[in-house]
Amino acid sequence: MKTINAFLEEWGSYIWEAIIETFQMVSISLVISVIIGLPLGVLLVLTRPGKALENKYLFGLLNILINIIRSVPFIILLFFILPFTKWIVGTTIGVKGVIVPLVVFTAPYIARLMETSLLEVNRGVIEAYEAMGIKTRGIIWNVMIREAKPSIILGLTIATIGLIGATAMAGLVGAGGLGDLAYRFGHLRYEPVVMYVTVGLLILLVQGLQTIGNRTAARLKKD
Amino acid sequence: MINIHNLSKTFTSKKGKVDALKEVSLEVKKGEIFGVIGYSGAGKSTLIRCVNLLEQPTAGSVQIDGTEITSLSSKDLLKARRKIGMIFQGFNLLKTATVYENVAIPLKLTGVPKNKIDERVNRYLDIVGLADKKDSYPAQLSGGQKQRVAIARALSHEPEVLLSDEATSALDPDTTDSILDLLLKINEEFGITILLITHEMHVIQRICDRVAVMENGEIVEQGHTLDVFTAPKHPTTQKFVNSIFNFQLTGDIVKSLRKTGEIIALKFIDQSSEEPVLAVVAKKFDVYPNILSGMITQVKNEPFGRLLVHFKGETGEIQRALHFLRNQGIQTDEVIRYEDNKRIS
Lengths: 223, 345
Prior knowledge:
The complex is a heterodimer of chains A (223) and B (345).
Chain A: H1 2-46, H2 56-71, H3 74-80, H4 82-89, H5 94-119, H6 123-131, H7 136-167, H8 178-188, H9 192-220
Helix pairs in contact in A: 1-5, 1-7, 1-8, 2-5, 4-5, 5-7, 6-7, 7-9, 8-9
Chain B: E1 2-13, E2 16-28, E3 33-38, H1 44-51, E4 59-64, E5 67-68, H2 74-82, E6 84-88, H3 99-109, H4 114-127, H5 143-155, E7 161-165, H6 173-190, E8 193-198, H7 201-207, E9 210-215, E10 218-224, H8 225-230, H9 235-244, H10 251-258, E11 261-269, H11 277-284, E12 288-299, E13 302-312, H12 315-327, E14 330-334
Parallel strand pairs in B: 3-8, 3-9, 6-7, 7-8
Antiparallel strand pairs in B: 1-2, 1-4, 4-5, 9-10, 11-13, 11-14, 12-13
């Protein structure tokens, strides 16, 4: 008990701060990534051959672009797009500076996950709605996204967990977070307990997220 | 109501061209139930999908109530489609929506005023007999119930035409009949014109006023259902008709029966199927009719029966008996061809 108290006294505020930073980075970049990734996923589905907005050039371009970005590991992407980051948010350090690379990393990933989810939607239902004279916009929201929702939630869970992993590298640009804490104090300053505690927290976080994701998806799924 | 003229559809793929429809023409009159029957790959599905332009025809015209569908702007096509209901083999309901929502969502999306939606959903769920399943999800329903929801969804747009793409093909016989009765009721009570495609002769027989038989992208025979049933001309039509009257006699039996008389197929149409003509024949002539196989059924609302009868007796007497039968309005066809284990027509 004493040791726990002593530990909390010494590290509590650092850990709390790191949790907040991780939370900030993950939530902000997740929201922006979904805003970019979901429409991209929809576009990837609708522009493919035989679909409502068939356009092989746009489809091909998106496909290649997404593949290129997804080929670059996050730690390299982080430095590779520094000029772009600077141009977008005016800085390359801190939470603000890491959001841009996190979004660039996650949005194409989410686009792919959304694409896979949306492709699972029964073609016949979409056709039935087309036959009823319903506009493509109405079909996107009320058929495709609605029907794919359980699968979309699971995809977003995967993306969020990947995002948490990526934030561990955010420390390199001074954005902090749990990963950074474990690295700097646990590894560089050799405080193994800090490392264990942060890793433990990350495990809890990921477990919790996956459970929430699974439960939400199961609740939305009606078959 | 639906006027299809010289409609062609060619699918082009890497493997080459497939002519799914070859200059198909047919006319569906207002208020009738028109059936198109054919085996898989005959092109019937492509045909019905061209009517609401789910499939773009390569050539030809489709007119609904005088409007040429193939040349509509995409905005007008949306409007035209709202007056054409469609039901499918796979039901095509939203899995994540309740029965009520499955009917209500499309109404909302087609701009039906909010205060009218609730009333319409309830009215049409009532008509298909699912008022008590409003809050169920499709996964909790049977196949027949799912098709009823799909029918309610189609009807709720108050269409003039209903297209049915193999709507009963995934259902068991009893459920098929109940769905067919529902379609008949819709046709009679709301005057909705129905164009349906199927591979089951039973569907045609039960509800269709007129029928077209399709094979290899062409209509090989069409006419009033009863006429097609009583006098099928094309071999494919004959096969379909025989699928209802499944008379299986082996060649051996036919051979041995031939020695003592003749095998005749009798067709009874209309009221003639209600009279005991064979008993009369047996009394009046020196022949012994022996029923080998037979059934009486209904084509739409008309009774229609077929009997395969062996007449034992002298040739002259048999001919006189057959003459008498023909005067009673019964068709008689001598069974000449027989093959081992093949159906006899």
